[in-house]
């Protein structure tokens, strides 16, 4: 029975690797044909699929690398890999904005879309699947995640200050990148634990070991990085062109279509953990990803913009971008308060999902500020009447530097 089960899993994982690589092939081939022009819709589809396939390969390469890279280096390396697909698209828009101000909104659109998808769709799905599979009402989060939760709280609270200035500037970059570096330093001092691989990464680890595993990790990383590198610019530009040509709001296309491609691998890995009754590990990976995006990714935007523009000015924010940033910040605040007591219930997940999905039905500024009010009202309400344990643990995330049970500085 075990042999048959292993054979099925092996066949499935091999198909996943082959399928991910196949997604990149059409665009790689078309990209290398000189002077070949395609409709914007076709470019968006082909380049977007290449980013999707590359992101899957990149995620598996990152998992394999954890077996061989020293922990201190792995923390920084894997953090960079986790935001690479989003980084490629966002940095393109930030660079273009330095030359053409009309591109400034798109950098914020992609960043806020990726951040809100991670919580509203990713966190909620992992908890709901975990509760369904384990027949429980709430998921208990590992105490080691308090480190990520602390830095998520700090980055979230700081993010409320960004819209007040009307720009994302180099001061913001210094603060957010400093938070990321402090987070990395704390993580390096944290307790080491064994890496648990799932899916294709686990198959390669079982089949090849040592030298073969390293070869696969390097090969997948190089191939995925190349696919993402040649796809990011045409994908981003084609989305804007499709929106303008078909009277579709290009801001919304950039905000939701682009992050779906880059976030899918993280979602799938976390969901696999949830299906295998390892929901705490799955939600832990998404909390870590949120910290990386809210610090490293956002902090890089004004740096790229300043270099492109050839000055010290920050990326300008209009009313719509300001609204999107505040909405993203309030969602992050509510989500962090909900998990402050290290328990994530089915009800909490449904709340986050409904608030997230509800935003798609209303796009006007007035209604979206109503969602901001909902997030803030629920967050404040939870702190006031949500129980002393949750309130105490939330504020301890902000102020305390004691040691957690997991061995991490918290």
């Amino acid at each position: 029975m075990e042999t048959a089960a292993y054979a099925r899993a092996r066949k499935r994982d091999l198909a996943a690797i082959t399928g991910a690589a196949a997604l990149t092939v059409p665009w790689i081939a078309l990209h290398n044909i000189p002077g070949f022009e395609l409709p914007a819709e076709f470019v968006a589809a082909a380049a977007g699929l290449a980013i999707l396939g590359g992101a899957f390969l990149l995620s598996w390469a990152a998992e394999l690398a954890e077996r061989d890279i020293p922990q201190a280096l792995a923390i920084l390396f894997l953090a960079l890999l986790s935001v690479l697909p989003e980084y490629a698209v966002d940095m393109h828009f930030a660079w273009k904005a330095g030359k053409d101000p009309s591109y400034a909104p798109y950098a914020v659109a992609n960043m806020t879309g990726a951040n809100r998808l991670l919580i509203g769709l990713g966190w909620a799905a992992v908890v709901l699947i975990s509760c369904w599979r384990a027949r429980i009402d709430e998921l208990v989060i590992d105490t080691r995640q308090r480190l990520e939760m602390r830095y998520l709280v700090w980055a979230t609270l700081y993010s409320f200050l960004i819209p007040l200035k009307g720009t994302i500037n180099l001061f913001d970059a210094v603060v957010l990148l400093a938070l990321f570096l402090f987070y990395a330093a704390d993580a390096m001092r944290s307790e080491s634990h064994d890496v648990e691989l799932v899916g294709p990464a686990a198959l390669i680890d079982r089949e090849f070991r040592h030298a073969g595993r390293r070869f696969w990790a390097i090969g997948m990383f190089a191939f995925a990085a190349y696919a993402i590198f040649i796809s990011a610019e045409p994908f981003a530009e084609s989305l804007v062109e499709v929106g303008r040509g078909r009277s579709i709001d290009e801001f919304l296309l950039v905000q939701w279509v682009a992050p779906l491609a880059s976030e899918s691998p993280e979602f799938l890995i976390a969901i696999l953990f949830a299906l295998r009754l390892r929901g705490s590990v799955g939600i832990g990976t998404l909390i870590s990803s949120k910290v990386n995006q809210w610090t490293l990714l956002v902090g890089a935007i004004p740096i790229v913009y300043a270099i492109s523009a050839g000055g010290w000015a920050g990326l300008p924010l209009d009313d719509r971008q300001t609204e999107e940033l505040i909405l993203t910040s309030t969602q992050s605040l509510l989500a962090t308060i909900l998990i402050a007591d290290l328990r994530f219930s089915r009800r909490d997940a449904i709340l986050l999902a409904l608030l997230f999905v509800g935003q798609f039905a209303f796009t006007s500024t007035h209604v979206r500020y109503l969602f901001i009010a909902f997030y803030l009202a629920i967050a404040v309400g939870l702190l006031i009447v949500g129980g002393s344990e949750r309130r105490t643990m939330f504020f301890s995330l902000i102020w305390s530097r004691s040691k957690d049970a997991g061995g991490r500085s918290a």
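The chain has one domain: 2-399. The first strand starts at residue 138 and ends at 140.
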